[in-house]
Design a protein that fits this description.
The chain is α+β, with helices and mostly antiparallel strands. Helices cover 53% and strands 11% of the residues.
Length: 149
């Protein structure tokens, strides 16, 4: 298993809010702002937890960086990604393992829906059916209309 796949499984299977609370001893809530535990952040909350198709994510506005459950293990524990992955993988049913493997084979594990939609939108450009300006306009319009979320 590659590290990217192992991290994706960890991120989907381990709720980050509960993991942070357990590791750091204070509550974290999805949808709420919080102090970023990944750097010295004590004056005003600089991060927010949100849930998406890949699991719960903490986004730090100061660092402009996203963190996931696998990052919590890396930064705050002595467990390796391999150790955490093995523990989770051994607890999954055969069907759950098959589902993850199928998602990896299809590229879903390593690519978010937004990225997939963006890459799909480039197909007409690659086929010579759109100009570069048309692609940029399409991206701009989908961003304005909210289709990219």
């Amino acid at each position: 298993m590659n590290v990217r796949f192992m991290k994706a499984v960890i991120d989907r299977e381990v709720p980050m809010d509960k993991l942070l609370q357990r590791v750091l001893g204070r509550p974290f809530y999805v949808g709420s702002s919080c102090f970023c535990p990944f750097h010295d952040n004590t004056n005003t909350p600089a991060a927010k937890l949100y849930d998406d198709e890949r699991g719960i994510t903490l986004f730090c506005f100061t660092e402009q960086k996203s963190y996931r459950s696998s990052d919590v293990f890396t930064h705050f524990t002595n467990f390796s990604i391999q150790q955490v992955f093995n523990k989770i993988w051994n607890r999954l049913s055969d069907q759950e393992k098959t589902d993850y493997m199928d998602r990896m084979d299809s590229g879903e594990i390593v690519m978010s829906d937004v990225v997939k939609r963006f890459l799909d939108s480039l197909t007409p450009f690659k086929q010579g059916l759109m100009t570069y300006d048309d692609v940029l306009e399409s991206i701009l319009l989908s961003t304005i209309s909210g289709d990219s979320e």
